[in-house]
Design a protein that fits this description.
Radius of gyration: 22 Å
CATH class of the largest domain: Mainly Beta
Distance between the termini: 79 Å
Number of helices: 5
Shape: globular
Largest sheet: 8 strands, mixed, barrel
Oligomer: single chain
Number of strands: 12
Order of helices and strands: HHEEEEHEEHEEEEEEH
Length: about 300
């Protein structure tokens, strides 16, 4: 065997060993992460008090991290996590529940939201890890049939249990240059009052399918937000990564209201409003290009 072939073989072996080491490290890290959150879920006490249903006892989680403010669980997905909140929206992008550096981050509430009483619009963020971790499986809600199997989920605060009916799901972008210098501000916490009609009108244009769930001005809304790759584009073998977001909009089940949703009345939105980059990628005209740009009005507290 010539020296050239031996060199190539050695290089291939080194690449294989390094790649295997990276893969093993990733698998072990994911296993440890899943195990950690399973243990946290098991630490929650759901025993009833005085023969009446009570809020689960989250004291063990609060002792582990005083930033703990609630728990979110979405049926038919792996989403079953504690929710945290600190004084900014950056820290938990790269730190887990135990405040250790972790690319998966944690599931966290917008720092501007009230974690006890909940605002008219509460926002919860989580990474899309493109596997089953964190908010990765929110992307299942792009599929209307999956929504029909899972129209309701649970998010509890430390003081109250809530069930949430999904009103709509849409895709937007966090970069103004990807949507005619516009960002749809779905994260503002005060979407009641004079902001309500404009906000719901925008969601109605953007949602991928129409549900049988209604929303009133006095309902509490919950937004689940994660990244998504559906607006990326390829050009001459080069990939442009759009700053796209998948957004799930839900509202709390009202007192005395049934928790069920008539999913047979769900149907596809035939004229979805997407960011401009979506139309550019498909080389088609944007029917909403001259649509009014809606902005929430600031509420003075």
């Amino acid at each position: 065997m010539g020296k050239g072939k031996i060199f190539i073989m050695v290089v291939c072996i080194i690449v294989f060993v390094l790649s295997s080491a990276v893969l093993i490290k990733y698998v072990v890290s994911e296993y440890n992460s899943n195990k950690m959150y399973e243990e946290l879920a098991n630490s929650v006490s759901t025993e009833n008090t005085d023969d009446e249903a009570s809020v689960p006892d989250y004291s063990a989680l609060y002792e582990k991290n005083s930033d703990f403010i609630g728990w979110i669980s979405v049926p038919n997905t792996s989403i079953n996590y504690p929710v945290v909140q600190c004084d900014n929206n950056d820290y938990y992008l790269s730190n887990n529940f135990f405040k250790a550096r972790d690319a998966r981050g944690a599931i966290f509430m917008d720092y501007r939201n009230n974690p006890v009483n909940l605002d008219s619009n509460t926002v919860i963020y989580g990474h899309n890890c493109y596997n089953t971790n964190m908010f990765s499986e929110l992307t299942k809600f792009q599929n209307i049939d999956f929504y029909k199997s899972t129209p309701v989920f649970e998010f509890n605060t430390v003081e109250k249990e809530y069930k949430w009916k999904i009103y709509g799901v849409f895709i937007t972008t966090a970069k103004p240059e990807e949507d005619n210098d516009y960002i749809f501000n779905y994260t503002y916490q005060h979407m009641d009052g004079e902001n309500f009609d404009g906000f719901i009108e925008e969601i109605n244009k953007r949602r991928l399918y129409v549900t049988d769930v209604d929303i009133n001005d006095d309902d509490k809304m919950l937004i689940l937000s994660t990244c998504v790759r559906s607006l990326d584009k390829y050009e001459k073998l080069k990939k442009y990564k759009a700053d796209a977001r998948l957004v799930v909009v839900a509202r709390a089940v009202r007192d005395g209201e049934s928790e069920t949703v008539d999913v047979s009345k769900t149907y596809s939105n035939k004229n979805v409003k997407y960011p401009q980059i979506y139309y550019d990628n498909k080389n088609i005209e944007n029917p909403y290009k001259n649509d009014d740009k809606w902005y929430p009005k600031e509420v003075v507290q």
